Amino acid sequence: MKRIALLLAVVLLCCTLVFGAQAGLLINGAGATFPYPIYSKWFDVYHQKNSSINFNYQSVGSGAGIKQVTEGTVDFGASDGPMNEEQMKAFQDKRGTQILHFPTVLGAAVPTYNVPGVTGSLNFTPEALAGIFLGKITKWNDPAIAGANNGVNLPANDIVVVHRSDGSGTTYMWTDYLSKVSDEWKSKVNKATSVNWPVGLGGKGNEGVTGLIKQTPNAIGYVELIYALQNNVPYGMVKNAAGNFVKADVSSVSAAAASAVKDMPADFRVSITNAPGKAAYPISSFTWLLIPAKIPDSAKRDAIKGFLKWMLTDGQSYCEQLSYAKLPKEVVEKEEKAINNIQ
Amino acid sequence: MPSAGPVTGSRSFLAKLRDGDEIARLVTFVFAATVVLITVLLVYELWINSTLPRHKFGLHFFVTQVWDPVMDEFGALPFVYGTLVTSAVALIIAVPLGIGASIFLAELAPPRISDTLQFFIDLLAAVPSVIYGLLGVFIVVPLIRTVIYPAINKPFGFLPMFKGPSYGVGFLTAGIVLAIMVIPYIISVSREVLLSVPRDQREAALALGSTRWESTWKVVVPFARTGIMGSIFLALARALGETMAVTMVIGNTPKIAASLFAPGYSIAAVIANEFTEATGELYTQSLIALGLVLFLLTFVLNGLARLLIVVTTQKGSGVSA
Amino acid sequence: MNARLRWRKLVSNFMLTMTGVCAFVSVAVLFFILGYLLFNGGTSINWAFFTQLPKPVGEVGGGMANAIVGSAKLLLAASLLGVPIGFLGGIYLAEFSGATVASVVRYAADLLNGVPSIVIGIFAYAIVVQPFKHFSTLAGAFALGLMMIPITLRSTEEFLNGVPRMLREGAMALGASKWKTISTVIVPAAYRGILTAILLALARVAGETAPLLFTAFGNRFWSQGWAQPTASLPVMIFTYAVSPYEDWHRQAWAAGLVLLGLILIINILARTILSRGIAVPRS
Question: Which terminus of chain A faces fewer neighbouring Cβ atoms within 10 Å, N or C?
Fold first, then answer.
């Protein structure tokens, strides 16, 4: 018995040594679920090209990304809601350096739903969306919804609102839009990564919300476009500032970014919801990587800078197949210069 | 020369140290003391890291319904409500089933069958929470939505308890999953407690002409009453602290609702969902304050449970849960 | 009189049958869970599951090799932390301590045992993750190890106390010092029970998810060494189950089957070891 135990201990020790051997650089990041599909693709491809570098990205929500990068428990964060002044100051205070925002892709938050009998795209006006999420419009056949959808047979069922239960940049995007189009929303709820929702169920991450909508009849929620596409969940068109009902896709999202490009601030923090333009999709947004301006570990710093350069060039070619829009040329140029700010 | 057996008089410390015994005593004492230290440190950390909400909200924390990270307003009420309601539902389902099963195992089943069944029930207690959550999401949630809700809502929908639409997730779903998780605790402890009731109690009742059921229900069970209460407290303590299974089926909505079909939130679930992303000291510390509340609740219940069980079984060491 | 007696007998038979139904239902649930997992998980388990890393989001395939290894590492480190403290502490309680110290230690262990696992996660985050500024396997192991201590401690004490007096007295009569008695006579006599307790503690923490959420965090790749975040089976099950991807659901079932199978095997092993040993109080 003793001999077996000794043998087992030796085997286990060997295993630990094997698995404990340091080989390759691990860089930890956490944050937004919105761009998770493309980030995981990028990190996978980048690892294939540079087998000694592993970018471990955990899709835990923009809120968690901001918190963890501020605490320093991850090397970089990711968020679709830019950090506000207070959060940036907190970062500065805690870590002794600035936080830099680097846009990666453009995406869209779409209203997804599961209405029995409806398989196509419904039209949503800003008033309808605000009313539904405020809990004032409670039935699917309400005139505010039916009015924009002539010919569609909407049932008289109660609407089940689904939102995010975790801190989310997608929520930020959605509430930012609602605050712009509805004064009542702005005063009652306002915009943030985590708000006090008047109604609805909470799902964790874009994944959780999509899952809930799929399983719950009469549900409506908001998710990033790719989640609706990958899971075959119908999503609706939204009326933009110019009065057209636009469906979210690569070109309508790019159109929304076009107007903001000229006035892009140096720190890249800009909101493009409810953008002007005939073909613009109104609930679009950049999504950012949050990177500290000072990275003491030179290996990590070089790896991150190397990845950013790759992301802005080769990486952008993966956007379309996952239904994200590429960054506009002007933004790419500005960013390539900004990479040098990482010391 | 190392001495064995009873030692008379005192020896110098160094002499004692050379003696393997003293070293052993010291070393094992250090480890035992570590346990106490860790526990003290844990309570201390919880207390110290929840000072902000204590100072800002005071006792108001327990009666505020709002959980608003944007406005920095935090109240524990929806979570305490959710925790208590789901646990109550769990007990309502689990206690009759559990006590019934334990009566069967203790009174009726032949010893071998009783032991075998107990073995399986102990295995049920070993199933991890996340697996219950997995089954909850894919089996119980659709079951509630397609079978149970229509069956209850149509006849009883006017009652506030059963009103409103059903999303599949909600208080009732969480309660059902919790019930399955706590039944093994009720059964195993109640069974032991019932087995420890002295034979003559039963025999006296039967000698007086009672039926098997009457002797069990009217004599044996009351005799073991305190121990059975203890098992219920134990089950309750487990239900209160349950995290993963509840998070996956409760609906994650910090609202108080009368209907069992409504979505809600529990203390453990909100900590699991929001802890890694709580930006700002007040937010994080409010979550830790919730953790402290949960800890105190389970602490009191576990203490009571042990007391009751020990008193009934008259075994010194009690039962480890 | 006769009618009343018949009624009472009827009630008796009915109620006793109902208790049988209760017992049957309770046990049936276990078999239902096992069967369901076997059916859904069994069809999803393939070689890739055990050998491959997770694929990018939305792509079908891949496996949980890193999570399996991660869980193994976590459990190993947790045992290295929790078992010595529990075991040696238990020896102190059973062999050396006075009554008051013993009750204080026992009380602390019971308190620790009752702490909800999510609160242990908060504690581990404050003590290990924040000061060192990263999520790590060690932090996760710390949390799990803490949970193993109370069970190991109480069981060690119980089983040591259960060793018959005559063994002790025999050793002392032969001139053995206290420590020698403990290490060569008493502990070996109680080792079955203690081993059982360790296995049961291991089985309990193997399935814990909540404390790992903010300690070990997660990792899509292999976790190197002990200071990096790591994937683990329970957390993967949780993440995949609440996602909308069918393929991830499939993998969650497979992982659930593997995890439950492992835990049940450890439990059955532990209980069989115990039942074959000397008569000691059951835990």
Answer: N
